[in-house]
Amino acid sequence: MSGFDAPYVPGWDCHGLPIELNVEKKKGKVGHKIDANSFRAECRKYADTQVNKQKQDFQRLGILGDWDNPYLTKDFGYEANIVRALGKIVENNHISKGYKPVHWCTECGSALAEAEVEYKDKKSDAIDVKFTLIDNTLFGVDKPVSIVIWTTTPWTLPANEAVALHSELDYVLVDTGNEYLLLAQALAENALSRYDIQGATIGEKTFSGSEIEGLKVQHPFYDKQVPVILGEHVTIEAGTGAVHTAPAHGQEDYAVGLQYDLPVECPVDSRGVFFEDTELLAGQFIFKANASVIEILENTNTLVKYEPLQHSYPHCWRHKAPVIFRATPQWFVSMQQNGLRDAVNREILKVDWIPDWGKKRIELMVGNRPDWCILGSVFGVCR
């Protein structure tokens, strides 16, 4: 920028949940003690107050800038430009509406962008659960055969629509006496040591995930059957080599569910409470419902193992509360629709990168960039 006038223009982001949450503390939630229009007006006033305070602090610190002409995202001219930009994105057919799982904070009652999620340790309920095969003819045995899944989110089991295996993994039957458990061969010994099952024997014959695909299993506590499917996200890093699949509560579950046309049924409301028509768990908060799910599994003799697990888990950066994946209708800027990702990559080639490694870094970022959720479920919060 040598030879150019490049003044520092200060600016403030005047939209977002932090403002709304602070106004709620004083005025209450919209629809209770205040209407939507009055609430927005209060948010504007609160933003003005905070901007003026921060501007004075910066000036007292001696920071040089064009303080008389800052940019404020709440200015009507700025908002008009946002609408123009959004109109251009719509015109270029990059906007899509989808019912898909997104990070959801039950405290905010809103979807969260990736940047609004932080990870910290959390104690979860890890369980191994039996899904009994309806037809065990493939295995040539005369006792029941159950696929065992491992999950750290028991509350998602009501939304289960399938059990996923890996096409190239080998699976074995473990004879426990009264039944057979189907486990990934690479994880069978480790799983049995966790289960503390005495006298169990691991069969020598192996079955690939591809051979088992399409068979039906019984849901552990609902009167329904779900299919065995294949997914590349299934690994042998932990668990059993079989993954409980709830398309409404996981991005990988959702993606593999699209391939098999699985239903996306979300039984949880915006507060993290099971809907009143949710069998056995109606009205319960999801994390508290884990205990109920475990009790139900014990009563149906489908719980193989329960143990607490300390692990890294996503949290809301505002409330520090655990977040969930929850399928909701959302508007997205689609990276694939109408070739947006390819168009961005072409623009990258037109730039001279200093240093050179910057080009590779931005290419990786664009290549891994998911669709951008642009509208939260709150009043006037565009991301």
Low-confidence stretches: 379-383
SSE topology string: EHHEHEEEEEEEHEHEEEHHEEHHE
Shape: elongated
Count up the domains.
Answer: 2
Strand content: 25-35%
Quote the CATH topology of the largest domain: Isoleucyl-tRNA Synthetase, domain 2
CATH architecture of the largest domain: Alpha-Beta Complex
The CATH class of the largest domain, by name, is Alpha Beta
Helicity range = 25-40%
In terms of structural class, how would the helical and strand content be classed?
A: alpha+beta
What features would you describe in this structure?
There is one protein chain. This protein is an alpha+beta fold and 383 residues long. The chain has two domains: 1-70, no CATH class; 118-316, Alpha-Beta Complex (Isoleucyl-tRNA Synthetase, domain 2), CATH 3.90.740.10. The protein is built from nine helices and 16 strands. Strands 5, 6, 7, 8, 9, 10, 11, 12, 13 and 14 form a ten-stranded mixed sheet that branches. Helix 1 (17-27) crosses helix 2 and helix 8 (340-349) packs antiparallel against helix 9. The chain is elongated, with a radius of gyration of 26 Å.
